[in-house]
Design a protein that fits this description.
The structure is a homodimer.
Chain A lengths: L3 H5 L2 E4 L5 E15 L3 E10 L2 E7 L2 E8 L4 H11 L9 E7 L2 E6 L6 E2 L5 E3 L5 E3 L2 E2 L16 H9 L5 H6 L3 E7 L4 E7 L2 H14 L7 E5 L5 H10 L3 E4 L5 H10 L2 E7 L2 E6 L12
Parallel strand pairs in A: 4-7, 14-15, 15-16
Antiparallel strand pairs in A: 1-2, 2-3, 4-5, 6-7, 8-11, 9-10, 12-13, 12-14, 16-17
Helix pairs in contact in A: 2-5, 5-6, 6-7
């Protein structure tokens, strides 16, 4: 999509929460082909990629390429979702400068254990760096009992449509945290679906949200690496417009997490732990 | 999607090229909710994830999680697309066993250079392991001059729809290599979009295809890490149903690669090097 107006607002845009962001989108000169009108030189809004190395207590723990906004939120959410820290209270300082984020933890904690291996498995093509956290948090701190109605799930999933950066560029994923009643807590877009979840969780806990009373809505597939994040950070339910993988479902079942997918047009699949859907009535 | 018939064919399916594959899909028991009919216990076909460690001459070079079929094709394509080898002729042996692929190269070559860092940047959340190839191949072996017509591009992109594993599970990406005339050379589906490209290129070159006369069609976004693969392996054009990122376009422009995106409903964006589209006529 193109317009001179947008060209003049190079790099600026609005994020999921209606705040202005800079540097996330830039224009590229392109040739647009239309079978009725031929070739036309014009401009196109494209999302930007930004490399970031995260160091925890001086040790590099991950390199990612992400959308260049909400970088502190990303760092906090990544550390919580991957089990490096319990929450923002474990962090003494964060400094993001250029392509490096330096995080120092409370002196009483020594969270990073350098490993023998150089990377850890993720799904869908990704690897993560060692070192791993010394004590990986066990999934299972998930709050039991009913959480949301199917009506709340459908209503909230619809609001994933707004995605202002995706509408301009077609280039982002998103993740949104909701309360049990369906109020939006925090949402983010990012070129990476994992990054969107990390930013959203980081932003929400910095704003004081209680993850155990919340649930996470995403647009992308629920592979094991996506299901692991809410299970580790204590969010009891994840729902997606897309499908779950076999391994994502297995991880959800073992972790006690409710996993919902294929959520569209008045129907969804609940892959495991449907007891958190308030109107669920078991039928053989 | 569910049926007893599919439940009885656990794990089996057809791949993009019409061949039977095993172990790629498994069923999960789910609760399907429909707002008109309530909750119903049933079965759902889900894609499986499989971890694979690739070792080159005894050195671990990448860990991925992928769809468990065409693993040798993945390994060959990955090594070519990432610049570790020139082609299958550099490989003395490949053995894939369980979660490990061991590749040995011709004794005259020593391709792997252990690096100081433990991982390399990818986009959209991924990292790759060191070591890197000693001599990264320079992009730029791309054949200049006209390659395809816009009609061929549209016709071929339509055939991305078939994706038999995606139709069953909703859980895969795909990549297909075509000749300049629009004949299908090789196609693959995978839970990872990078993996699909690596498998497709590996399968095509093992079948003797000439990459420099071919072009690559994908469904997913063209971030820099996706654009790098055809540029490195000598495929002169990549086209996608989805958008390119700013950084993907920059890399394509520098590499001499033609990058096409947003290809649907009779129009597309050519982000750079439109001169390979036979019917291209420059207009101011």
């Amino acid at each position: 999509m193109n317009s001179l107006m947008r060209y003049s607002t190079e790099g600026r845009g609005m994020d999921f929460n209606g705040k202005a962001v800079e540097g996330v989108v830039s224009v590229q000169p392109i040739v647009r082909f239309d079978s009725s009108g031929g070739f036309r030189s014009t401009m196109d809004d494209c999302v930007r990629e930004h490399p970031l190395l995260v160091q925890l207590d001086g040790v590099p723990i991950v390199r990612v390429v992400l959308s260049p906004y909400r970088l502190e939120e990303f760092v906090v959410g990544f550390l919580v979702n991957e089990g490096f820290i319990e929450g923002p209270g474990d962090i003494r300082s964060i400094e993001v400068s250029g392509g490096t984020a330096s995080v120092f933890c409370s002196p009483s904690r020594s969270l990073v254990a350098p490993g023998n291996e150089t990377a850890v498995l993720e799904s869908t093509g990704a690897t993560r760096l060692e070192p791993r956290p010394k004590t990986l948090k066990k999934p299972g701190a998930l709050r039991p009992g009913p959480l949301v109605t199917s009506e709340v799930v459908f209503r909230c999933m619809k609001s994933l449509d707004k995605m202002p950066i995706h509408r301009r560029t077609g280039g982002t994923h998103c993740a949104v945290l909701f309360t049990a009643e369906g109020e939006e807590v925090f949402g983010c877009e990012d070129i990476g679906r994992h990054n969107a979840v990390d930013k959203t969780v980081g932003g929400a806990i910095r704003a004081g949200a209680e993850l155990k009373h919340s649930w996470l809505a995403v647009a992308g597939r629920l592979a094991a690496d996506m299901v692991r994040k809410p299970a580790a950070s204590g969010i009891p339910l994840i729902a997606s417009l897309a499908a779950a993988t076999y391994d994502g479902v297995e991880l959800g079942r073992r972790s006690g997490l409710t996993v919902i997918g294929h959520c569209k047009k008045g129907s969804f699949n609940c892959y495991c732990h449907p007891e958190r859907i308030k109107d669920y009535r078991p039928v053989a």
